[in-house]
Amino acid sequence: MRADDFLHPTDAGLYCPPGDFFIDPVRPVPRALITHGHGDHARSGHGAVMATRETLEIMAIRYGEDFTAARQPADGPVRVGDVEVSFHPAGHILGSAQIRLACAGGPVITVSGDYCRTPNPVCAPWEPVPCDIFVTEATFGLPVFKHPNPAAETQKLLASMAEFPGRPHLVGAYALGKAQRVIALLRQAGYDAPIHLHGSAQRLSEYHVAEGIPLGDLRPATTPKQIEGQVVIAPPSAFASPWVQRFRDPVICFASGWMAVRARARQRGVELPLVISDHVDWPQLTQTLSELRPQEVWVTHGAEEALVRWCELNQLRARPLRLVGYEDEEE
Question: What class of enzyme is it (predicted)?
């Protein structure tokens, strides 16, 4: 079986004919396999959804219990049509997974979704999945992106709070995954004061706690008079709303891999950029491909051409998929 007969891009997303399913489709389809709960990968309205238990529960929190007509937790290898499907940790956010596909007479394909090899205290670590074809993201697929140690970035936040004890530090962090990771990093660094959350991050953080991830004293960010700690975490979109005006002289922070680009920090009015990413950077990306050595690499979500060129220079066959409809939700 040719690879394109097994899995190929369509307007709705990657489609697998032998299993008659889509992976991370961008519009409603009869059957979807979902890598993780971010909205550019996990959408509502599908007829049936297979994902990890955590991703299914996160989708229910975000979209309501009726987000799909039928749901199936991924539990060990299962057959979907003529395809053996298994889910493996991606290290991106809670519940994130790489999806391995195997079919008689065809190549073994791993669709990585979004993944990260830097240890993340709020999710299972990435694991290598041997395959013939590796479908990789390239969100930070340029040599300029070399992310620093998240613990060192956390120390920058703690140092700023010590320098400006009277100013609240408003940390822009995506409500699913990044917010909880920033909280966990602060707790690991010894910060045990209350951390206040914008409403969009509160229920998802409570879910992480229910899953056994210790996040310490979390409180709603309602009015400044009720703020007992210096840290307030909110999605970046909140900083463009009247919500931010309730805080007097805040230090505006933003936790994202994109904060390595100084122009983006300036455009957002960020005083304290924190380069904390849940994606592989360039060294991790190329290390992964060097270690897996698949027969072919399919590249999507980002700087596709640069990574394809690197593959060619390193004797790896590669092609860009040019899928549409995917964006980094941190933006």
Answer: hydrolase
Q: Which of 278, 274, 321 is nearest to 36 (CA)?
A: 278
Q: Is 327 contained in some domain?
A: no
Short-list 66, 38, 57, CA closest to 235: 38
CB atoms within 10 A of CB 48: 16
DSSP string, 140-159: T-STT--PPPHHHHHHHHHH
56: domain CATH number is: 3.60.15.10
- Using CA atoms, how far apart are residues 119 and 110, in angstroms rounded to an integer? 21
- Number of structural domains (the chain) is 2
pLDDT confidence band for 323 (50 / 70 / 90): confident
Q: Which range is least confidently modeled, 56-60, 302-306, 321-325, 327-331?
A: 327-331
Confidence of residue 331 (pLDDT cuts 50, 70, 90): very low
| Same structural domain, 98 and 186 | no
Judgement on whether residues 123 and 196 belong to the same structural domain of the protein: no
Q: What are phi and psi of 209, to 5 degrees?
A: -60, -40
CA–CA gap between residue 275 and residue 269 (Å, rounded)? 15
Give the domain extent around 93. Answer: 3-144+279-320
CA distance 177 to 41: 14
Looking at the structure, tell me whether residues 90 and 223 fall in a common domain: no
**pLDDT confidence bin for 303, thresholds 50/70/90:** confident
Residues 253 and 287 in one domain: no
pLDDT of residue 63: 96
Under 8 Å between Cβ of 180 and 200: no
Counts of helices then strands in the chain (DSSP H, E) = 8, 19
Same domain, 28 and 137: yes
Q: Which two tokens stand for residue 72?
A: 């199936």
Distance of CA 42 to the CA centre of its chain: 11
- Asked if residue 83 belongs to a domain, the reply is yes
